[in-house]
Each structure stands twice: as structure tokens, then as C-alpha cells.
Amino acid sequence: MFYIGCHLSASKGFLHMGKEALSIGANTFQFFTRNPRGAKAKAIDPKDAAALRDLMAENHFGPVIAHAPYTMNACSADPHLRELAEQMMTDDLERMEHLPGNLYNFHPGSHVGQGVETGTEQIAAMLGRILQPDQHTTVLLETMAGKGSEVGRSFEELRSIIDQCPKGDLLGVCLDTCHISDGGYPVAEHLDDVLEEFDRVVGLKRLKAIHLNDSLNPLGSHKDRHAKIGEGSLGIEAFEKIINHPALRDLPFCLETPNELPGYAAEIALLKDLRKEKDI
Ligand code: FE
Ligand code: FE
Ligand code: ZN
């Protein structure tokens, strides 16, 4: 199955997102668990969650991705902000139990001058306290572009979080194509090599989702500015290879390109066209 979708606004609830996804030809989507500035989360309406679960089952959706607010920083130098990050993720994961079997993606954090070793240590320790073996959500570390003091700019940094986390076995990874290109991995030119390296360092079995974004900036720029598919430095052929690659093709692909709904619908149609051995 080709699982393809995009980031949607959660402001009108779960069922609304499911219907919106269907209206643009998507069978997965991503949403923020609370507003991106990290305010208090809205209470979950169990009926709304149940209605989305039904819609997803009836329409053969792939896993959906809940995205933590990007202000959440598990390796802030300020202990109060680290505590806040821990509370937010704990609360988000409790709420995700209303949608069992899905994914929760977060930006590992920014070490803000503490150094990457301290950063990975703090992130791993927090995850060790939060993750529960009986949780029905897989928590994903996102590959980052390496802007500022972002942690997760290389596969090794993600590996180091996983290794230091007492419950590292439970962690997965979400690979963002714009971020890894900006991070210096030639995903457009040498996809096979990049995936081999990912497999060697992190393990392909941990890869659970792909953020499909072109990049406004060249390889290794460490900028993190997303471009529409085919309109950036990666180019359309790169995406054709990515969505058809045997190691990736069964994962959920999620667009985070600068688009409104009609633009997303067009990109989804374009990608479906580029999909080989059509199974949708
Ligand atoms: Fe992200
Ligand atoms: Fe992303
Ligand atoms: Zn990004």
C-alpha cells in the first residue's frame, strides 16, 4: 500500500482531519498535538477519536503521525523547560492512547551551548522516564537539519540517544528528506549509500516514517527551509526514487511542504503518478 499524506491542522478535531485527508487523496496525515508554541493541549473527545479510528480502518489508512510542538526542548539548559518538555510528552502520549497503533514524532532538542553529549544524555534520560513498554504509540526521533545547536543532525547523534536510553529498544526514527539533505546526506544523488549508512548506524528496522520535503537550500546548508516537491535542490527524480525504494516504499510518507490543501492534493496526485507497481 502507498501511504501518502500531509500535515493538517488539528483545530477542528480528529474526524475532521480524517475527512480532509480523504478529500485530498491522502491515507495518512500528521498533526500537532497542541499548538506549535506549546500551549496547553485541548482535552480529547473520545467520540471524536473513535470516529477517526473507524474512518481510518474503513479507508485502509496507514499510521498517522502526531508531532510534538517544536518549542519542546528535552535538552534545554533551563531545568524548568526540561521539566515542561517531560510533562508535555508524558501528557501527549497518554492522549495518543485514544489512537492506538500510531506514531509520535519529536525534534530531539537543541543543546543551546551545553554541548551535544549533554544534549543526547538529557534527551535519553527523559525518554527513559517516559517510555512505557505497554504503550501503543511508537515514539520517533526526527532527523534534523543541524540548524543552530539542534541535536539529531547526524545518524550518529540519533544512535547515541538510542544507546543511552534505558528503553532505547522502543524508539523509532522519522527521516525528513529536507533535513538530511541540509544535514549533508546526499539523499538525491546517492540514495542507496545514504540508506546503507542509515542502516549501519541506526538500523533500517527503526525507520517508521518519512517526511517528504524538498529543500530551498543546497546539500549541507544546515538551514531547514522546506520547498515544494520538485521545486528545490532535491528535484523530482529524487522523490520518484524515494517513494519507490524497496526499503522505504511501505512506510507512511508525509508532506510538510509550503502548501494549502489544493497544493497538497496536487503533490499527492503527482506522487501517486510516480509510484511504480501501483497498489492503491
Ligand atoms: Fe518536524
Ligand atoms: Fe519534518
Ligand atoms: Zn523542517
Offer a concise description of the structure.
By secondary structure, this protein is an alpha/beta fold.
What does this structure look like?
The protein has 280 residues and is an alpha/beta fold. It has one domain: TIM Barrel. It contains nine helices and twelve strands. The strands form three sheets. It has an eight-stranded parallel beta barrel. The chain has a two-stranded antiparallel ribbon with strand order 5-7. It has a two-stranded antiparallel ribbon with strand order 10-11. Strand 3, helix 3 and strand 4 form a beta-alpha-beta unit. It is globular, with a radius of gyration of 18 Å. The mean pLDDT is 97. The structure holds fe (iii) ion (FE) (2 copies) and zinc ion. The site of one fe (iii) ion (FE) has 4 residues, from loops. The site of zinc ion has 5 residues, from helix 6.
